[in-house]
Design goal:
Helix content is 50%, strand content 14%. The radius of gyration is 17 Å and the shape is globular. It has helices at residues 18-29, 36-49, 57-66, 87-91, 93-102, 106-117, 132-136, 150-163, 170-186, 208-222; strands spanning 7-11, 32-35, 69-71, 79-81, 84-85, 125-129, 142-147, 199-202. The chain has a single domain, classed as Rossmann fold, CATH 3.40.50.300. The chain is built from 10 helices and 8 strands. The chain has a 5-stranded parallel β-sheet with strand order 2-6-1-7-8. Strands 3-4-5 form a 3-stranded antiparallel β-sheet. The chain has 228 residues and is an alpha/beta fold. The chain starts with 6 loop residues before the first strand and ends in a 6-residue tail after the last helix. The structure holds cytidine-5'-monophosphate (C5P). Cytidine-5'-monophosphate binds at residues 14, 36-38, 40-41, 96, 99-100, 103, 129-131, 180, 184.
Length: 228
Amino acid sequence: MSQHVPVVTIDGPSGTGKGTIAQLVAKHLGWHLLDSGALYRIVAIGIADLNIFHNEVNKICDFAASMKVEFSTEFEGSISLNGKEISHAVRLEETAEKASQVAALGPLREVLLERQRKFCQPPGLVADGRDMGTVVFPSADLKIYLTASPEERAQRRYKQLINKGVGVNLRALLQDIASRDERDANRQVSPLRPAQDAVVIDTTALTIEQVLESVLAQVSLALPETSK
Ligand code: C5P
């Protein structure tokens, strides 16, 4: 019998602190981390480099099936695509926008499914994304869904980008976030929504430390063996 590998999924729209929380929880537990959004971002970068258009679905799928991706273990560390370092490009807002467009393609999501599931290795996995609890790991041991008001999310993203030296306009960011949310929530395949059995945490008025505390409390309830 194969060993049960515990999985905690952390889903929600951008700017909820998902990425940071997923990384902190993975570190706390000593588990692997899957940043699934990065995979969609990487596909968007790769196909742009090859001048593949968004309606060339077969070409996009072939690319995604054969791409070689490497993540360094530290948070937001280096990412390489077919041997080329692309971590800066991965974090750009324009990449997020293109990622959200390719992410609406059902056949591409299908291609990325197995690649994402391969991250599930002992001693456990924290998976961050939009459909981790609903589609990729439907039998996860714990499903968290983080939300926050669009204004708060835009503010957080603004601060994050400014700290990284990326110039952005807050109002434009709010509009971009709203249009991406709309596309992610209304697409036909794997739309952004909490799994029925997800624990929903509204992070609007919470600090990262408070969100982390509340997620770790849920982890201890769902997986008591992790707090021994
Ligand atoms: O989480 P991140 O901002 O990196 O995701 C970028 C885009 O990738 C999202 O706007 C969404 O459209 C897509 N995505 C997705 N499913 C996931 C993760 C990300 O559709 N599991």
